[in-house]
# Entry
Amino acid sequence: MSRIAATFEKLKREGRRALIPFITAGDPDPALAIPLMHALVAGGADVIELGVPFSDPMADGPVIQRSSERALKHGVSLKSVIGYVAEFRKLNGTTPVVLFGYANPIEALGAERFADLAKVADADGVLVVDYPPEEAHKLVALLDARALDTVFLLSPTTDDARLRRVAALGRGYLYYVSLKGVTGAANIDLADVAARIARIRSFTALPIGVGFGIRDADTAKRIAAVADAVVIGSRLVQEIENSRREQVTSNVTAFLSGVRQAMDTLAREEVA
# Structure
């Protein structure tokens, strides 16, 4: 069983939902990359989505775009990010890490070389925003051969035919984008999210995480009532951007801890 699958199984037994934070690796600077990963775990992260900085992050809003720009100014590359995973593993052998990025850096490095390096670093999964399922078979095969999960995105406009393809190719969990548009948008329609997750569940037994637009503990708790995981990205990256350097890790842990506590309150309420 993969580390991701084992994590979701454990949470299911406990009646809890996964908290999946996203950060851009190397933001605000490379020296904080590893401390921030450990700060996420301290705050209650169950899985870490580690963003690979890219010059044209088309699915990301201005907050995450700026984080990529900051990391790229420090020379952070795909190989750098894979190196952060290997360094993180020296102290943490249990928290799954998903490499989150775009196709261009993988193609430039070479898909097979990328898969080899990710495996050696002991990563757990890969999410490539602009690899649609119709074009991802080669990458999925390479990652499958190395016991790495391929995570796919679903959106409000995903039709049944594509849902079937994603259900067949997806590994680990599926990431449902709760809003049309880029990261950091607002105004989640919780009833609509619940209805769409119910539809997705008819196609797959994989856990379903929900992201985009989750900016506070209350929204995270309400999303957790209908999903298997809550993904928080832009709000967390904004916390990094707005913090003094010496307070970045503590602020990230404090913010995430509040979200974790709210989600765990939901679990206790359901038991009661």
